[in-house]
């Protein structure tokens, strides 16, 4: 492979800033419907909508976004290996911002559902391209720190949504303004598309003597097949846990708080996002300190205990609820600092964006199924959020087993 000359310091900082802001915008979209879904449903279906039906529609929005993100992560990750990480990052941001913002004009549940799927395409593409670009531009000892910074981007966006919701309560008469703010990120997409420097490692890989016929073919054939399958499992477990279990705390708080406590759902999301920012930052440092596999095992154990515990031992109006939400957010999102550091290490440069995209986003297919399953459980249980949360939270226990099938990449260089 041709030697990759590093970018100047200023260009490296520009790469980090644009990738970070792109992930903040993606986080805004991820945090949007947990806050606005029940309000949108009450407007579009009527205020007398039963809690079980409203919860089922929240599950559908979640599933649509996860399916879109899964498809986008694979397709736009592949695009990043073909045309470059920087341009594919710009395409991803424009996709989620334009389709996400267009939800402000939705006239039915079905229209909003379709737009959430299309926004998900861009969200899915943002993560593998942004992470691959930053990982390749920032090498050596700085990578755990940079991975931690990148890991916080999504949760900063989720926190921003919650704080906006606290400043102006999101109700059935007032939720479209929040959706319209998704358009703001389009400016970052234009900057990325036109001005962002490309990864030197990706440029150098274009001159390699031997190239795979397609990245997908190489990833799903020996010797990378086993690594790809393990990577998919490692990315799937935290995503399924987040969307089939953790995110139910917010509509649970909305249902219990009702009109007497209209700010409780925003407060719940805010406390969770505050914990998540810390968790997603320190996850990469924990992986660096304990080793990749031991850290993942410890995170899985903590997330399983805390997620089950919060639904069993507390409830939204209890004094213990918000502090437990903070701690659960911190521990369960340590995964999202671990993933941007460790997933790129599994794959060679020529297929890194595609491999990372598949590993991270394939779990969204299962997440979508899990969210729909949780929605069915919600209808079956008559709106019992605690029961659904406990059952769904069991997915974290799978991480205690899967991680030991992964290679230890603690000392692996990204030059390959």
Per-chain topology:
Blueprint (H helix, E strand, L loop, with lengths): L8 H37 L5 H33 L1 H17 L7 H29 L5 H25 L8 H5 L5 H10 L4 H6 L9 H5 L5 H20 L4 H9 L6 H27 L1 H22 L7 H12 L2 H8 L9 H29 L4 H9 L5 H4 L14
Helix pairs in contact: 1-2, 1-3, 1-4, 1-5, 1-7, 2-3, 2-4, 2-16, 3-4, 3-7, 4-16, 5-12, 5-15, 10-16, 11-12, 12-13, 12-14, 12-15, 13-14, 13-17, 16-17
Task: Give your account of this protein's structure.
This protein is mostly helical and 416 residues long. It has a single domain (9-204, 213-405), classed as Growth Hormone, Chain: A (Up-down Bundle), CATH 1.20.1250.20. Helices cover 74% and strands 0% of the residues. The chain has 18 helices and no strands. It has helices spanning 9-45, 51-83, 85-101, 109-137, 143-167, 176-180, 186-195, 200-205, 215-219, 225-244, 249-257, 264-290, 292-313, 321-332, 335-342, 352-380, 385-393, 399-402. α11 packs antiparallel against α12 and α12 packs antiparallel against α13 (292-313). The model has no long low-confidence stretch (mean pLDDT 86).
């Amino acid at each position: 492979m041709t030697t990759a000359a590093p970018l100047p310091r200023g260009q490296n900082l520009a790469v980090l800033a644009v990738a970070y802001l792109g992930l903040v915008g993606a986080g805004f979209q991820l945090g949007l419907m947990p806050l606005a879904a029940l309000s949108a449903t009450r407007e579009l279906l009527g205020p007398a909508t039963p809690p079980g039906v409203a919860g089922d529609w929240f599950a559908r929005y979640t599933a649509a976004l996860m399916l879109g993100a899964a498809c986008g992560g694979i397709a736009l990750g592949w695009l990043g290996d073909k045309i470059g990480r920087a341009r594919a990052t710009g395409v991803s941001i424009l996709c989620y911002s334009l389709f996400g913002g267009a939800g402000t004009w939705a006239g039915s549940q079905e229209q909003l559902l379709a737009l959430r799927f299309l926004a998900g395409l861009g969200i899915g593409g943002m993560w593998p391209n942004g992470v691959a670009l930053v990982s390749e531009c920032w090498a050596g000892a700085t990578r755990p720190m940079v991975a931690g910074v990148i890991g916080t981007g999504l949760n900063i966006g989720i926190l921003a949504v919650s704080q906006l919701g606290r400043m102006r309560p999101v109700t059935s008469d007032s939720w479209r303004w929040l959706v319209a703010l998704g358009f703001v990120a389009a400016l970052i997409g234009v900057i990325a598309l036109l001005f962002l420097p490309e990864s030197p490692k990706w440029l150098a890989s274009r001159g390699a003597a031997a190239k795979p016929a397609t990245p997908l073919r190489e990833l799903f054939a020996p010797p990378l097949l086993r690594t790809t399958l393990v990577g998919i499992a490692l990315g799937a477990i935290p995503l399924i846990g987040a969307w089939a279990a953790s995110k139910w705390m917010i509509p649970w708080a909305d249902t219990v708080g009702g009109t007497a406590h209209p700010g409780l759902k925003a407060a719940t999301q805010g406390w969770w996002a505050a914990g998540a920012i810390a968790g997603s930052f320190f996850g990469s440092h924990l992986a660096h300190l304990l080793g990749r596999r031991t850290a993942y095992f410890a995170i899985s154990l903590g997330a399983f205990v805390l997620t089950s515990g919060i639904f069993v031992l507390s409830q939204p109006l209890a004094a213990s609820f918000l502090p437990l939400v903070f701690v659960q957010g911190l521990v369960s999102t340590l995964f999202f600092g671990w993933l941007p550091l460790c997933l790129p290490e599994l794959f060679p440069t020529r297929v890194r964006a595609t491999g990372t995209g598949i590993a991270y986003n394939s779990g969204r297919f299962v997440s979508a199924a899990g969210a729909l399953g949780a929605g069915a459980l919600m209808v079956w249980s008559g709106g019992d959020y605690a029961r659904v949360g406990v059952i769904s939270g069991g997915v974290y226990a799978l991480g205690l087993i899967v991680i030991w099938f992964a290679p230890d990449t603690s000392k692996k260089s990204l030059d390959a």
